[in-house]
């Protein structure tokens, strides 16, 4: 398994990711995760070698199970990497825990202050919502997949962030019944017949 970016310990065994409050990511990550691991050129298929430049970074999604390898699972949870928490068609991440460094960058750009009302689209595990709440924000988070929303609620409650309101619904419709908001943050999946990607949007009311 490749080396992963590690971060420093903080307090009583809680990993402190630079730019984020001391929220325990372990409480939000399921037992099964998928990580992106580069495929060496020698393992490429003939078609890949014929159609892709040799310096292309091709990755595969590798399952890491806490039940089978606690140490390897914890290494990835403690890393600064994004973790897929659900896979579609055995290869496309459909839900994930964002990379902490990316979360920190977005939160810094939004300049979150205590009392800010934040609308988050794409709850995922609830880890980002917990970080926003730990900074004093009032968070409303929308998740389109009902079972993921319910698990996020359980994660947030277990971690002590019961003030975050998680709603199951279409993020494109927002949550006007709980408006107004000063900040909007979205982490969403965009699909076409041949491509699946993720986009992140951050908006702050002037």
Architecture overview:
It is globular and about 55 Å long. Strand 1 and strand 2 (14-15) form a beta hairpin. The chain has a five-stranded mixed sheet with strand order 9-8-7-10-11. A two-stranded antiparallel sheet has the order 1-2. A two-stranded antiparallel ribbon has the order 3-4. It is of the alpha/beta class and 206 residues long. It has helices at 46-51, 70-77, 100-110, 127-134, 146-159, and strands at residues 9-10, 14-15, 32-38, 59-65, 83-88, 92-97, 117-121, 138-143, 165-168, 183-192, 195-204. It contains five helices and eleven strands, in the order E-E-E-H-E-H-E-E-H-E-H-E-H-E-E-E.
Any key phrases for this structure?
206 residues, two-stranded antiparallel ribbon, 5 helices, globular
How much helicity do the residues have? 10-25%
Task: Outline the biggest β-sheet.
Answer: 5 strands, mixed
| Order of adjacent strands in the largest pleated sheet | 9-8-7-10-11
Q: Helical stretch count?
A: 5
Number of E strands: 11
Order of helices and strands: EEEHEHEEHEHEHEEE
Oligomer: single chain
**Uncertain spans, ≥5 residues at pLDDT below 50?**
1-12, 190-202
Beginning-to-end CA distance, first to last residue: 45 Å
The global form is globular
Beta-strand residue percentage: 25-35%
Structural class, please?
Answer: alpha/beta
Radius of gyration, taken over Cα atoms and rounded to an integer in Å = 18 Å
The overall pLDDT, averaged over residues, is 82
């Amino acid at each position: 398994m490749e080396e992963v970016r590690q971060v420093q310990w903080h307090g009583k065994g809680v990993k402190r990711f630079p730019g984020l409050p001391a929220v325990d990511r372990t409480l939000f990550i399921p037992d099964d995760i998928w990580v992106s691991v580069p495929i060496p050129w020698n393992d490429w298929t003939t078609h890949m070698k014929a159609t892709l430049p040799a310096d292309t970074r091709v990755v595969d999604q590798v399952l890491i199970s806490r039940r089978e390898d606690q140490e390897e699972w914890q290494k990835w949870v403690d890393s600064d990497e994004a973790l897929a928490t659900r896979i579609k068609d055995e290869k496309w991440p459909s839900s994930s825990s964002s990379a902490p460094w990316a979360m920190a960058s977005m939160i810094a750009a939004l300049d979150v202050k205590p009392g800010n009302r934040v609308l988050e689209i794409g709850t995922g595990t609830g880890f980002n919502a917990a970080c926003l709440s730990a900074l004093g924000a009032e968070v409303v988070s929308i998740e389109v997949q009902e079972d993921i929303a319910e698990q996020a609620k359980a994660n947030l409650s277990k971690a002590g962030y019961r003030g975050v309101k998680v709603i199951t619904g279409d993020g494109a419709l927002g949550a006007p019944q709980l408006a107004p908001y000063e900040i909007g943050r979205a982490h969403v999946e965009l699909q076409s017949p041949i491509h699946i990607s993720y986009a992140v949007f951050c908006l702050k009311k002037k």
